[in-house]
Amino acid sequence: MIKNNLCCIIDSIEGGLVKGWAHDPAAPNSSLKAIIVLDGQEIQRITCDESRPDVSAAGFPHALVGFTISVPGRFRDGETHYFEMMTEGGISVPLLWNNVLNASVSFQMSWVPEFRSSIDGYQRGAFRGWILENTAEDPKQFVGNSQLRVECEGQTVALLRANRYRSDVGRALSADPRCGFEYRPVFPVAKPFSQTFRFFKMPENIELDGSPYVTSILTDKQEASIVEISDMVANLHRQLTALRTQIEDLLPTYRYNIDDYDTWARKYTKALNDSSMIRLDSRRKTAPLVSIICPVYKPRLSDFALAVESVIAQTYQNWELILIDDCSGEADLKDMLQQFAQADSRIQHLATRKNSGISEASNLGLKAANGNWIAFLDHDDLLEASALDIMIAAAEATGAKLLYSDEDKIDDSGFFRDPAFKPDWNYRLLLEVNYICHFVLVQRDVINSAGPFNKQFDGAQDHDMLLRIAERLEPSEVFHVPEILYHWRITPGSTAGDIGAKPYAIEAGLQCVSRHLERRGLKADVSTRYGMTLYKIDWKTNNSPSVSIVIPFKDQIDVTLNCIKNIIEKTHYTNYQIVLVDNWSTDPNISLLQDYVSAHSNIKIIRQEIPFNYSLLNNIACASYPADYYVFLNNDLFVLTSDWLYRLVAEAEVDPRVGAVGGKFVYPNGTIQHGGVILGIGGVAGHVHTGLPGDEGGYGGRANFTQEMSAVTAAGMLVRGKAFHEIGCFDEAKLAVAFNDIDLCLRLRAAGYTIIYTPEFFAEHHESLSRGDDVRPAQERRFFKETQIMLERWGEVLRHDPFFNPHFSTSMQPFHALNDPEPVIWHWLESISARDIMKRRSVLSDYSKIVINI
Fold it and tell me: Domain Glycosyltransferase 2-like, which positions (predicted)?
């Protein structure tokens, strides 16, 4: 037995852990503080204070002497490594292992990952589930992004990547929430009879928990019948070919959609470049010099070469490419840079004296730039051949000073994926996410005014630059070119591969958004969403303007009473009153509601014995109880957070241009009912993200970001009082029931106000409890009439929602179904004058004369 000396007893080295206990007889009542060294490298500092009753029972002064050390993954490679322990003063602690005392202990470990998974089931046309695996670097950390294989009746039918956001899993397991997957069986896999589906983790081919799963995919009787007939006709071959074609034409399938984007992209790219070659010859007026800034730091040479060649291949010829080597220190790269510069006089090769980061490298390029226009290219990304031609043509036509395009990603196999079909200029969205990203073209004078890139914001330097530019331009000076002109390459560890791959970028983004708001004199707390480069703005305002919450109802006393009780009990904002508009209720229980109202001085009730006219009822309430803001609320909408009203008011108070603010509403089952409104859906307008789980963001995360939209539902909508009366309130004469909220939002926009959607106003909505639906004959006639009024009044506007990319279809599932793969920019530039484009896409000024008189 060792006496009066430092000593560490190792109990086990297995399963990725080193366990044991250690003590210092010179400090018998203290826990030893130690440094863990592997292969001569300090790995961890620990305090040996795990409870070891067995040690105490053996006669030591106390039991807090134990330790458990997780061996980092890089030491679990099956090779021999050496473990040492030292005191904080640098004294070596002897190690007792297998009854041998040494200064170090050798060990070998191999890594065997663990998996956690679940098949949630089949609902709403899709299998959903999740899978996590722990990492060799940190066995306690479970991450997503696993690759899966799906079998149906023994045949592989799909390969998936488990990278969908699952906040429920992340919270429950304290793990990476980007671990979910979704598989939608389509014809011919979808059958009306039971089939066995199996899900495997690849490449290990390990079956997930809950697999196999047996189900009948088609639950809709009509769809199932069509599939059965199609199968029968297929067996008759030539004799019934015509009939088979007719039946298959009835199948509810999309021609193109996001899930098969690669197919769409390949056809689109050809159409884009072909159309550009035809149209540009006759359109070109001038050819200003474009300086393309490309910082370079240790790229894969093959990717870098392709990036440069994509610039050389531009159909627009008047460009210069400025390559800035940020001290990569690679001879092969240096040779390649020199070769490109020697081969083409339009290519400049610069180099920093030391590695200074992307901002400083970009600034060096900006100083050397000679062009009137500046563009930016990452060192491994690709430009479409017609990119510069299209951007310059759009700049000439619109007079814009900042232009940005759509983009997608390209993986190592050459597949196009994850298209970013962007909205038009959306400043409020830009505060929460850099949705613009690539491809950006900006006037040199604007860059000079905004100033150089700020090294402090490396990782979010482009976001910072865009926000500084936004401080200097009017919305009409920014133009979105809705074409895929830029391909963002996915490489291991790149931001394109994982938005969370660069933690320093998250902090940089937080700071650049905060500084921007400070410069604008706006007070807010900025925080990250989901630990990614996505941000949440909590406005801070001391203003407390008056609010009238208007709730029309007829009977449904229990529902209405629960609605207002919910408001009274949950709302922290105090300067409000509730205005109940009783539309001829006959329920004898109305006395219960009246008793509750009489006990609360801030609740008013108006009785209107008139036929149901939603617009008129709300207008009467606002005229009777005017306020700084009105909140129009259905009696079947139940607020879920205490700060809901403060959020709405603050969103409007910080920006006098805000005319209305709406929220994110879910059905009682937790799925989304309203995530904003898109024009053109169903002919007039429709809700988006409907049916998604309440915490999902949908396409591009849009459901989870505060942003400008064309309209929001008046089931729960705050409207600025001054603006409401300025435009003539709701149209009670022509839009009594349907579309009055859409019409109101469009008239607000025509008057120069913006409409904001925010998920921070979160509520549960029992849709249409308050008035029923539109399926009975009388309602059908009224709905048809109001639809026609909207089409006649807003037909031109409804054909293009500036916040819904024109490559998405409005006749099928929003943010999923795609229009045919054809460019749209030329139609816009040729059919609409430049200034009309900017007007129509900002405040609808052509419609500003529409004011309703009541």
Answer: 291-426, 548-670
